[in-house]
Amino acid sequence: MDATERHRTSARVLLFDVQGSVLLIRFVVLRTEGEFAFWATPGGTVEKDETVEHAARRELQEELAIAVKLFGPVHEAYSEFEHEGHHARNTDVFFVGRFQGEEIKLSGTSPGEGGAMRDFRWWSAMGLEHSTEMFLPPELPRLVVRYANIAPSCVVEP
After folding, report:
1. What pLDDT sits at residue 152?
2. Which residue has the higher pLDDT, 17 or 153?
3. What are all long-range contacts of 35-39, with beta carbons under 8 Å and residues at least 24 apart?
4. Residue 102 above 90 pLDDT?
5. pTM of the prediction?
6. Facing residues of 38 across strands?
């Protein structure tokens, strides 16, 4: 791992269905010590000259090909980890949305992202609490319980 430290801000979306389950993506990334697998919400890096909300909307479009009304930001999480061979100090900014459509498809846009995104599924709060899987951020199960009922109705945006 390169010793260069990078500061990174990510926009993430707690995307709920009408039953209150949250959509999570299973990522498998290569780190110095080997493969690291975890479940996380859709989202990604806020680009230069982009607002956090715009990044959240862009990431939903890029990763899942959807547009929904967003509420927030509702939460910030801080972490440090290896990202693309560098030490990253990360801030995740979370928004809430509700999806009422029929189908979602996983469609990562960059080769690294597309290769790391392995699967997705809708998780209930109870399923998260009883799972032995790795969720990031660690407080994700608590966030799902807190925000499942305030997600705004789905509005497809132009």
Report:
1. 55
2. 17
3. 37/118, 37/134, 38/133, 38/134, 38/135, 38/136, 39/123, 39/133, 39/134, 39/135, 39/136, 39/140
4. no
5. 0.86
6. 27
Which amino acid is residue 54, in one-letter code? H
3-state helix, strand, coil in the chain (%, to 5): 20, 45, 35
Q: For the domain with range 2-147, which CATH number is right: 3.30.1330.10, 2.40.128.50, 3.20.20.70, 3.90.79.10? A: 3.90.79.10
Which pLDDT score, from 0 to 100, does residue 2 have? 54
Tokens (6 digits) for 77: 């999480």
Q: In the predicted model, is pLDDT for residue 139 greater than 90?
A: yes
Looking at per-residue confidence, does 85 or 40 come out higher? 40
Q: How far is CA 38 from CA 99, 120, 131, in A?
A: 22, 11, 12
Distance of CA 42 to the CA centre of its chain: 3
